[in-house]
Design brief:
Elements: H1 2-25, H2 30-63, H3 72-89, H4 96-102, H5 105-121
Helix pairs in contact: 1-2, 1-5, 2-3, 2-4
Length: 126
């Protein structure tokens, strides 16, 4: 799991770097580039929070402990809500659709990294 998250975070960081380079060199698309960069940052934060939550649940299941309640989902939703609030507060500087779209970069990158890893490790069955 950690390897998949590392690949996804690396992909999101490259995407965010490309968005920031576009922000510098394409003045007409600065709002979109800023939205993509902010959304990618929120996606990275959410990916790390989700991986931490999965590790905690796996540890609790292995130890036979009870279900521990937490604010994991609420914190991930609050991160995206923060991105939306920034985009709504500064619409001339941050594009809301671009920011919301970029919030899904890490989950999509994890999906494709898992497919690539499964194909690489596959023995030809299934």
């Amino acid at each position: 799991m950690a390897e998949l998250l590392q690949r996804a975070v690396r992909t999101a960081l490259f995407f965010m770097s490309a968005a920031l380079i576009a922000w510098v060199f394409v003045p007409a698309g600065r709002a979109v580039a800023a939205g993509l960069a902010i959304g990618a940052a929120a996606s990275i934060v959410n990916g790390i929070l989700l991986a931490r939550r999965v590790e905690l649940l796996a540890k609790a299941a292995a130890e036979g402990g009870g279900r521990r309640l937490g604010a994991g989902f609420a914190l991930r939703i609050a991160t995206v809500l923060g991105v939306v609030l920034i985009a709504r507060r500064f619409p001339e500087h941050v594009s809301l659709p671009a920011a919301l779209g970029a919030c899904f970069i890490v989950p999509i990158a994890v999906f494709f990294a898992a497919i690539a890893q499964n194909k690489h490790r596959s023995d030809g069955k299934g």
